[in-house]
Structure formats: C-alpha cells, structure tokens
Predict the structure.
Amino acid sequence: MRAAALSEASLGPAARTTDDQPSSVLRIKAVRKLYRDLEAIRNVSFDVADGEFLSLLGPSGCGKSTLLMMVAGLIDSTEGEIAVNGKAVAGPRREVGVVFQQPVLLPWRKVLDNVLFPIELLKLPRSQYEKRAMDLLAMAKIEDFAHHLPRQLSGGMRQRVSICRALIHDPRILLMDEPFSALDALTRDEMGVELLRIWQANRKTVIFVTHSIREAVLLSDRVLVMGRRPSTIVEELAIDLPRPRHIAMTEDESFNRFVRTLRKAIEASHAS
Amino acid sequence: MPARLREYATELAWPVGISLAMLGMWELAVRELGIRSIILPPPSEIAEAIIARHDLLLTHLWPSLYLTVLGFALSVVGGVLVAVLITYSTIVRKGFYPVIIVSQVIPKISIAPLFIVWFGTGTMSGLLLAFLVAFFPMTINAAMGFQAVDEDIHRMARTFMGTRWQIFWKIRMPNALPYIFAGMKISITLAIIGVIVSEFVASQEGIGYLIKLAGGLLDTPLMMAAIQGHEPIVRLLLKAGADADVRVHGGLTAAEFAAKYNHASLSRVLVCSQRQSGVAAIGPQCRGIVGYVH
C-alpha cells in the first residue's frame, strides 16, 4: 500500500511529459573516450526508453563504469553526444540519481539525514521530503533504522539507504554502478529482487552496470554487452522474461538460455 | 537519568581515585624516607603553600592564563584558515605547505629571545610565542582533516549537484572535526609552554616569571648558608647586601630555615636583619649582633 502511494507521489511534480522523443529518455550517440592516448571507449551508441531497465554487462575495466559516469555528468566524453531528455549532458543533472559500488554514506549523519542529503544540496524544502524519505525507507524495509548511524547497519542495509538517497529527489533516471558487487552472494540475489520491487513501484529508467551475467538477466529488460578495451557494444539482447521476476526463475531453461547467449557473446569478444 | 549519571560517576571515579592514590604514595614516600622538603616537598606542603600564597599565585596566574587562552584561540582560528587555503589553493598547497612542514624542524621556543628584542618584554612577545608554537599542529591537523575526504563521497556530492561551498560545509568540515579537536589538544599544551617560556626569558609577571623567581630564590646562598648553619658566610652575605626578607616556597625566610635546622643564634642574627619583621624585632636582643644591618 505504501509502495503504491509512493509511486503516485513520484509521478507528481516530475510527471512524464511527451516530448519530441516520447520513449527515449537517454540518447548516447557515437561516444568515444580517450585518456591521453589510451582509448577507453570507442563508438558507443544506444537509446534508453522511458521506464526501461537496461544493464551494461562486461568484464572489469571495460569502460562500463566510465560510460555511466559520463551519463552522470562527472566525466566529459572526448567525442560524441550524450543527451538526457533531449538536452546534452554538460555536468551533473537533477534528473539523475546515482548509486555507487560502495554505499558512500556520510558516517556522521543518521540514515534519514543521509537519505535527505541530496535535498539539502539541491536546496529543496526538507520538511516536504521527510515523509517521502520515510516512505522510501519503508519500501526498502529499513524504516526502523531511520535514526541509526550508518556504521550500525549491515552492508546490504547501507546499500539500501544509498538507493533511497538516489531516489529521494525523484530523478527520472537511476544510474547504478555495480551496486551489489560488494555484497555477499545471498544478500546480492535478495537485493536484486528488492530493487526490482522498488523499480516496479517507481518505474524509473534504470541503467545498471554489472559484471554478473545472472544479475543482468534477472533484472533487465535489455542487456548491452561491452567488450574489452577499447570497448564498444558487442551484443544487445532483449530479456523478455515475465515480470515480476523472482530468484526461482534462475532455475528455468529460458533464463539459462539468455545466460548462455550472453556468455558466448562475452567469450567471443575476448577471442577477437 | 540516574543510569547515565552513575556511568558518568564511574567514569570520573577511576582517574580521581588513581590521582589520589598517587598523591598519597608521594606524601608517604617523602615522610617515610625523610626527604627534605627543599628537594621534594610533599603534596600537603604544596597545598599549604598554595593556600598561603594564593593571592600571589592568582596575581601571576591571570596574565599567563589570559595569554594562553588568547594565543590558543588565535592559533585555532589561524590554523583552520590556513588549512582551508592549503586545501583550496594549489599555490599554497604546493608552495607553502612543504615549507611550513620543514620549518617545524626549528624549535620555535629557541626564537623567544629574538621576540623579546622585537616586541619587548610585554604581553606581545608571550602572545606571539604562544600563537606560533600552537599554530602549526593546528594547521597540519586541520589540513589533513579537510583533505581526508573519501573521493567517492566527493563524487557522490557532485552527482547531487553540490557546490564547492556546500561540499566544504557539509562534508569537509564535519570530516575534519575530529582532526581539528586532536590538533586543539596538542595546541593548548603548546600554548601554555609558549607563554611560560616567554615569561622565563623576560617578564615582570606570570607563572613563568614566578617559577624563575622561586627557582632563583631557592638557590640564594643566604638560604643555603642558613640551612648549613654557616654563620660567617651568613654575616658576609648580609654585609654584602643579601636580603633577609626573601621567602622561598612555603613562605620560609632564611631565619626560619636556620631555626628549622637548629641554628638558633644564627636565626636570631637573620631575624634582626629583616626589615619587614618590623621595629618590634629590632629590640634589645638585636643590639650587639654583628649581622644587624639597620
């Protein structure tokens, strides 16, 4: 019930409007990234539809995090175009929320104050967002810890706080940079399903970076496979498994067919 | 909250208990081993002296305390400001920061005499020396605190469109607070040392002045001669202008020392040489005493 109320609230101010490209929230066109003479990313292009859950899958060091940070506006691209809602990205934007590999919570702030931190930075009225913060914490099942300090929480709980923080200002796009890679395998599966539940309620556009094939298949509508440096997109695969998804699905043959296809694509990119 | 209060009481009980036990052992050791109080006075005698001379001590405590607190406060403000410059200015960080650290090799106390030459013997020298010695640990600690922000936290704040100003006040400052407090802990003791040393070098007031004065008095040949009961030397010193009125710690005069160490006639000579003991003392019993200088 709470989740339903929240999704309604989140549709409030930033309600979806139809613009020139009604379905494309993010457009990446011929993006290239050089670090001095090292080519990290070569000619990457793709569109992300509104409300889509897209995964960027690839081995470590393939530049998928770099790509994500370029979308977040933290790194400039050398060539090409990145546009959010039709506007070129020139720096961090309000429409984007980021979840990092580590929870990066401020250790001296209580959980609730950590979740409200973006509100402070954006100079929005805190009182109006306190209820939303509590609702988000409730949805992530950590509302009992709202007044605890981060160090009193487990790793999984801290990452939940970090997800709530990324959603507090109701961004249209949620960027997740291997958010569960620091967690143990059991917590990781559980967090994936939790994330899907939150996403289902909010219907954000999610771009999810991971090096776990299983995770990518379990969560995504579409998976883009990135090869080794200089990396491009070597495979694109739509995952048309039914939703809502749950961990039991990982046993299904259809699930494993997607996993095999993606593994082959990755292996092929290694060989070349 | 009685539970919290009890916790606080136990917290306090340990250091207080240990301190009292150590003072007790000190007192006992001095008494049992028969150590002369001029070598090591027992705590009870020190307490007595503090009570007896409280007006003198307070008079000299005030200027020292005032300079220490002021010098410390200036060093905290100055240190934090310079640390901000180190954090945000490349020129200061790359150019001045190494110089500041290397300059630590010079013991700043050693330039105290120079300060006296430049700024005189007044409060200015004491204040500057206190500031100077307390300033560096403050700066280095605060600079470390401002810069020890996790790169990920910095990145996170930037994705939420945090400005430099916001990142300073909401991230760098709270992050640096433990470092700043650690710096303050070092600086306050250094500020006291700075003040005391400047008073040692040249001053007319303050605890440092008092310590030096007392130290000087302790060495007064008159006192030593009185303790030893060496009458010819005492007479010689009195003739040469030694002051029989001077008191050492605990308020003893040379006459009282002589009496304490059973040199009665010598004590009489010394009493008769005192000016402050008044006309009453210079009675008939002083007539004919060679040491009588009045």
About this structure: Chain B touches chain A at residues 150, 152-153, 155-163, 166, 170-171, 174-175 (CB under 8 Å). Residues 255 and 267 of chain B are 4 Å apart (CA to CA). Chain B is about 75% helix and 0% strand.
